[in-house]
Structures are given as C-alpha cells and as structure tokens.
Give the backbone structure.
Amino acid sequence: MKINEEFEKSRNLIFIAIVLIFTMAFYKTAWVAEDAFITFRVINNTLDGLGLVWNSGERVQVYTHPLWFFILLPLTGLFDDPFYVVIFLSYFLLVLTLYFSYRALKNHRWWALFPICSLLWSRSFVDYSSSGLENPLLHLLAVLFFWMWIERKDAGLASLLISLLFLTRPDAVVLFFPAFLFLCFQDRRWGRIFIGLIPIISWVIFSLFYYGSPVPNTALAKVGTGLAVQDRFVQAVYYFQWIYENDKVTLPILILGIISGFLNKRFLAFSLGILLFTAYLFYVGADYMGGRFLSMPTLLAALLFSCVAGRVLVSLLMSYLLLSFNSLMLTVFSPPNFNQAVIENGIADERGFYYQWLGLSPSLRQGGWTLHPWFQAGLVLPGLYTRCAIGMAGFASEKTVRWIDPMALAEPFLARLPAKSKSRIGHHERALPAGYLESMVSGENKIVDKALSDLYADVDMVVRKPLFAKGRFKAVWRLNTGYYKEIFDNFDREAIGLPGVPISDKSPLSCYGVSSGWNYTWQIVGVPATAVSVNR
C-alpha cells in the first residue's frame, strides 16, 4: 500500500510540474487571431439584440464553431472584453486537457506521461492552445473521447462527444469517425446513439431554417471555390512542407502515434482516424494557418504513443526532444518580441503575424490590444465599407456599419460564386459581378446578368427577408439543391477589383488588384458605385 501511495504521489508531482511548464508556455505564446474577431462581432451583435448576425439585418453564419460561440457568448456578456475572455477560457481548457490526459494514462507507468510533454515542442499544439479560435475546446473533446475509449466504450456517450466535436468544428468528426463507427457496430444500441446525435440534427435544422444553409457560410467560401482537386492537393503539400520546416517535432509525433495504433489493435481506429483526417486535408487543400489543423491530431498521436510505447521508445523520444531543444525557443522560451510576418506558398506563421499586437504579454505591457491598425480601420462613420481583412475592423465598427467581404466569409452571395484562379489558400477572393455594389448600396437588385440576378434575389430573400416570408423556403431549397450550379459560364472569375481603384497586382497575396490591399478600407458610395479610400 505504501509503495502504491508513493507511486501515486510521484505521478501527481510529475503532473503538477507538467501543468506549470505548460502554463509558462501558454503565457509566453497566448494570442488572438484576426479571424477570431469575426466571431466577436457576431457575439456583440447577439448581445445587442440583433440576432446571430455579422451585418445587421443579414442572417449569415460567419463562424464554424457554434458550441465555441455559445460558450463565449455569456462569458463576454459577463466580462465585456472577448479578447481576455477567450484567452483565459483557453487556458482553463488547456488545464482540463492536461488533466484528462493524465487520467487517461493513470494505469500506465509514470514515464508514460513524458510523451505528453513532447507537446511542448509542438508549435501546432502550443500556438493553437490559444489563438481565440476553437482549437482549445477541440483538444479537450479529443482527450475526453480518448478517455472514454479507455475507461468504458459507450457508443451513446461517443455519439454525444461526436455531436460536441461537430458543433465545435464539423470536420473534426473525420478524425474520430473510424473509432465512432467501430463503437456503433460493437454496441448496436441505436436508440442511445441517435439520442447522442440529436445536437447535430437540431443545429443543422436550425441553421437551415435561420441561415438558409446547413453548413457555415465560411465553408461555402473556402471549399466551394471552383478550384481543381489537384490544385488543392498541391497546396496541402505546401502545408506539410511548412510543418516540416517550421515545426520540427509535430510530424515525428504524428508518425509515432500512427505506428502505435497499428502496433496495438486496441487503438487502431485512432490511427486510421489520423490517416483519414490527413487525406481530408489533402482534399480540401489544408489551411493557411501553419499548424492549426494538426493541433488536435498531434495531441491524439501523443496519447497513442504514451499508451503503447515501452520505456525504451519513450527514452528515444525524449532523447530526440533534447536534441531538438531549439524548438522550445518558439514555445516555452518564446521571446516577448516574437515576430515572424512571413508567408511561404500561402502558408503563414499566424502567431508571428499578430503576436506583437494581439499577444497576451504585449497587450499587458502596452495597456491594451486595440492599437492594431486594422482595429483602428474600423473606427469609421456609418455606411457601407469593404476590406479584405474584416475581423478586427468589423469588431471595432459600430453595428450600423455594413461590411462587404471579397473573401466571401461574411458574404452569402459571393460565397456561391467561384473564386479567382490564383487565390491564396483560405483567402479565395471573388470578382464582383456588374451591378453587385449598386445592389448593396441601393438595397435593390441591380445585378446585370440574369442568372446571377436570380441567385442574388434568392440569397436576398433567404438572409434579409423575414423568416416566414412568402417564397423563402423555396429559395432555401434552390440554394441548397444545385439549382444554380450551371449559371457561371458567363461569369468572369478573374475580373477582380473595385470601381475607381487601379489594378496593379493580381497575385495570390494581393486583394482588389492592389499589392497592399489588405491594409486598405474603402467606402462604397453612390449609384453607379464608387470605392473611396478611407485609410488614415
């Protein structure tokens, strides 16, 4: 008994040390991404009684994470500033993730905890343990699913966790689909399984009714681009190349985790899930945020390795980590002046771009985070504006300000048009059809092309008219059943730009044909419409 107590005490001390080191890494790296402010604006509009909307009077789902949104909503209402709310919530979820990782490994030797420490070397995991995005919640749900698998394989509980994963980020389900499928056919209590899936069914029905689409508008904007599968595959290759060059430990952890699952059939479903998720990334072209999509698979891989590997393999991993000590200079020992504003093949070090303005430590030193030029760009008079980076500016602006997003994340009509062929991954710019800006200014349908005009009319009916307006449900049906898939033959997807703004650059990193277009804000005025720069 005394030996067991000493053993447990040693494990507890190791766990406390792990939490303290991760706390240090979190403080050194905590930040908020520009995209998070898109959700923050919807939260503010909801708290102001405008509904779950980005622009007042337009029902558009600009967030992919309804569960994350509804957790942030009351906390922001209570504490006011979503920037600090999301950072401290992320830290709380990190601690819970570490705790349930510890619980999942309670029947293993004390050295089985060390592979969890390897996550300190993973920029994919550390950078996205904050960021303001949904990753911290995904991490916790992933560990809970793994813990459930070890403690008791319950298909009803698994289906509930699948629902929560879906509501946090729909494509996260791909990672756990093989394990969930296995449990379903092993358990076969289909009633319990169905009950667990009710949150998914309920949200899809609500989304279809309220927003007019069963999937987020962001998914339409980023996946429905009209780009060839082979182009997306090449982009995913660039993504993994970026990981190999900038995140030296993440890929080895993933490989070790996959191998571990194949060595122990008990965990085979998780290895298959990681492979399936990797294939999915190649299909969609991965992402522009270096490491973001790999944070959850990396955590799962570390857990797999912890459960399967013996002391010798764990020692080899720790030796490799010691040889990779320099990687800690970007996590645990990340400098307070961290700045890596570099884009390689469309992939960016997102924390490197924003940390100096939107990092926790810099914001505390500077007395706030609102000094970022893009936040200041949102302090404009009421009117109709357009920017290529809408997050911070949209959040800073008054609720009476309306924004047009050429990347179509917040624009339901443009999201249904093909993107320009040379688009940066995750930033798929749309050309503006003739009459589109005039329609947005006047509130009347002035689209010149007849087919595009019909599409605009249906979008207008679905997102701006009352929920039970006559003809709205027919419009919802047309928008979601491929009715308009053949209308783009006469649409010039390369005709990007704004009236009154000279075209000088059509490269993937430009916007509206301007090389530095991401730093500009234009007001759209008059019919015919003109774009007027309002940069300060």
